[in-house]
C-alpha cells in the first residue's frame, strides 16, 4: 500500500493523526494534573497510560479514569 507513495504523501496522511494524538495527550494530562481524585488507579499510572497509550490511553482516561463532577 505504501510502496508506491512518496515520503511527503505518507507524512500528509499521518500528520492529522499525530496532531489529534498530541491534543488528546495534552488535554488528558492537563485534566489529570487538575483532578483532585481519579478512579481505579493512582495518578502516576494514569500518566503512564496517557503518554504510552497513544490515542487510546487518553481516551480511556477521559472516559473512565476521571471522577465525574457532581
Structure explained in plain terms:
69% of the residues lie in helices and 0% in strands. The chain has 70 residues and is mostly helical. It has a domain at 19-65. α1 packs parallel to α3. The longest helix is centred in the N-terminal third of the chain and has 28 residues, at 7-34. The model has no long low-confidence stretch (mean pLDDT 89).
Helix proportion range: 55-70%
How many helix segments? Answer: 3
Question: Which blocks of ≥5 consecutive residues have pLDDT under 50?
Answer: none
Rounded mean pLDDT score:
89
**Overall 3D form:** elongated
Quote the distance from N terminus to C terminus: 49 Å
| Major sheet summary line | none
Quaternary structure: single chain
What is the number of beta strands? 0
Tell me the Rg in angstroms: 16 Å
Q: Would you list the SSEs in sequence order as H and E?
A: HHH
Q: Given the helix and strand composition, which structural class is it?
A: mainly alpha
User: In what range is the share of β-strand residues?
Assistant: under 5%
Descriptive labels:
70 residues; mainly alpha; elongated
SSE blueprint and pairings:
Layout: H1 7-34, H2 43-52, H3 56-65
Helix pairs in contact: 1-2, 1-3, 2-3
Amino acid at each position: 500500500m505504501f510502496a508506491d507513495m512518496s515520503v511527503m504523501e505518507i507524512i500528509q496522511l499521518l500528520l492529522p493523526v499525530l496532531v489529534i494524538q498530541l491534543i488528546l495527550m495534552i488535554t488528558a494530562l492537563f485534566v489529570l494534573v487538575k483532578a483532585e481524585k481519579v478512579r481505579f488507579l493512582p495518578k502516576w499510572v494514569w500518566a503512564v497510560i496517557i503518554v504510552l497509550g497513544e490515542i487510546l490511553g487518553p481516551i480511556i482516561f477521559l472516559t473512565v479514569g476521571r471522577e465525574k463532577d457532581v
